[in-house]
Amino acid sequence: MENDDVKDYLFHLVEEKEVSTSTLNIAVNALKFYYGEVLKRRFAYGIKRPKKDKKLPVVLSQEDVSRILSSVTNIKHKLILMLMYSAGLRVSEVVKLKPEDIDTERRLIHIRGAKGRKDRYTMLSEVALDMLNEYIQKYKPQTWLFPGAKPGAHVTTRTVQAIFEKACEKAKIGKEVSVHSLRHSFATHLLESCVDLRYIQELLGHKSSKNNRNIYACE
After folding, report:
1. Catalytic pick from 77, 78, 183, 189?
2. Which residue among the candidates 77, 78, 90, 189 is catalytic per the annotation?
């Protein structure tokens, strides 16, 4: 196998088969392993690894979000999804909330040890506050705001994902979305309402706008 054969093969994958960058990287890794570990030779063809595909996140409309929340009857499950959307929380953040993280007087949620090990505050909407008060009266959570099935543990991220998937199915949402879409939708809807991008970044815990691609012009 000559150097040109490797080039032709990789070109075939990209141009004719139109594989994703992750699939192309697998092919490159396989070739490197074959040359290095099996043939004990240097990989003949130096290739600049392609960057990972950058796809815009799927955003739910406000009507979609309303249908999803309306489809959930369990107050605990509905509150989890509502906080994710109305406060822009990651699923890993909402499951680790504690009762003392909620400042009802200032209408703020304290996110501790978020991505990058940084604390931040985000908003607590009036609608979410009303449901939160109802939930606390009914369930009286202690250690965790959303306790899980195991004693002393919080609800798992997989459980929240399952709650969201079931809600989307009941609401007949046809888009390919994940529970993280609630956070993306929160940011996009604020941008559409002409909220300052820097303020949205603070709520989300982002350092800069490099990763925010859904930016709308406001008149």
Report:
1. 183
2. 90
Q: Which domain holds residue 2?
A: 1-54
Catalytic annotation on 184? no
Which member of 77, 78, 189, 206 is catalytic?
A: 206
Spot the catalytic one: 49, 106, 115, 213.
Answer: 115
Q: Is 110 a catalytic residue?
A: no
Of the three residues 14, 30, 54, the one that is the final residue of a domain is: 54
Number of H helices, E strands in the chain: 9, 3
Q: Assess whether 104 and 16 both reside in one domain.
A: no
Catalytic annotation present for 106: no
Are 111 and 27 contained in the same domain?
Answer: no
pLDDT tens by residue, 181-215: 999 899 999 988 888 888 888 888 876 544 444 44
C-alpha span between 215 and 189 (Å, rounded): 10
**Does 41 qualify as catalytic in the annotation?**
no
- Annotated catalytic, 12? no
Within-domain flag for 218: no
List of residues 6+ apart from 49 with CB closer than 8 A: 25, 28
Q: Which of 93-97, 110-114, 207-211 has the highest mean pLDDT?
A: 93-97
Alpha carbons 128 and 83: distance in angstroms, whole number: 7
What per-residue confidence (pLDDT) applies to 95? 95
206 noted as active-site residue: yes
Mutual orientation of helices 62-70 and 181-192 as an angle, nearest 10°?
140
Q: Which carries the bigger pLDDT value, residue 194 or residue 216?
A: 194
The CATH number of whichever domain residue 184 belongs to comes to 1.10.443.10
